[in-house]
Design a protein that fits this description.
Length: 210
């Protein structure tokens, strides 16, 4: 017993609760078999996700990632764990886990991996909006604004947040977000302003806060 298919064949007729018990026994007993333990953790996630136990599923993926033998396998498992941590609202752990995936990505693939990370947050925010969970959606958009986006993209997020604040009856917050949008545009203009070689020796670094 080692592959996911072999493990599934052993437990397929059991209830989900019994499956979890058996999988837990496998990860404890098979201490010297990394591949079997990894596959058992991955199978646990399927049950946790079905039950919406996002934190349990994310932790199981972390355990599987630690046991994976290749960089690509580890990267994908860390990414999946990060995706589930987003759903728990634990953005600190999600960010830390996504960072592990980015470090493991080949240099040529890091931008694509980063785009996938952004896509996870955006998709979850839209899902929350579709469920009329505006307050939670706003919290996700707030997290997205910490991801150092280009000002144009960040201001699109601010527009969305302002609309959501209005929907939940918070016009003051909507106004504040729109003011932040104007401030961000002004700050971006200053960053890109040409610097004249004058007597006060102002440098480009002064404009970008370095």
């Amino acid at each position: 017993m080692g592959t996911k298919e072999e493990i599934l064949n052993e437990i397929k007729s059991k209830s989900d609760d019994i499956k979890l018990e058996l999988l837990d026994k496998i990860v404890k007993k098979m201490e010297n078999d990394q591949e079997t333990r990894k596959n058992a953790f991955i199978l646990m996630t399927d049950i946790y996700i079905k039950r919406l136990w996002w934190n349990n599923a994310a932790r199981a993926y972390l355990n599987a990632a630690d046991l994976a033998k290749t960089f690509d396998d580890k990267k994908e498992l860390f990414f999946k764990a990060g995706e589930l941590f987003v759903r728990t609202g634990d953005y600190f752990t999600a960010e830390d886990t996504f960072r592990k995936a980015l470090v493991l990505a080949a240099k040529r693939d890091r931008q694509d991996t980063w785009n996938r990370v952004l896509g996870v947050y955006m998709a979850y925010a839209r899902e929350l909006e579709s469920k009329r969970m505006q307050t939670k959606a706003i919290s996700v958009y707030n997290k997205i604004l910490t991801l150092n986006l280009p000002v144009e993209n960040a201001n699109q997020i601010r527009d969305r947040m302002a609309d959501l604040y209005e929907k939940i009856g918070k016009p003051r917050e909507a106004t504040m977000i729109r003011q932040q949008k104007a401030s961000a545009l002004e700050a971006d203009k200053k960053k890109t302003m040409p610097v004249e070689d004058d007597d006060d020796h102002t440098s480009a670094q002064d404009f970008i806060g370095v």
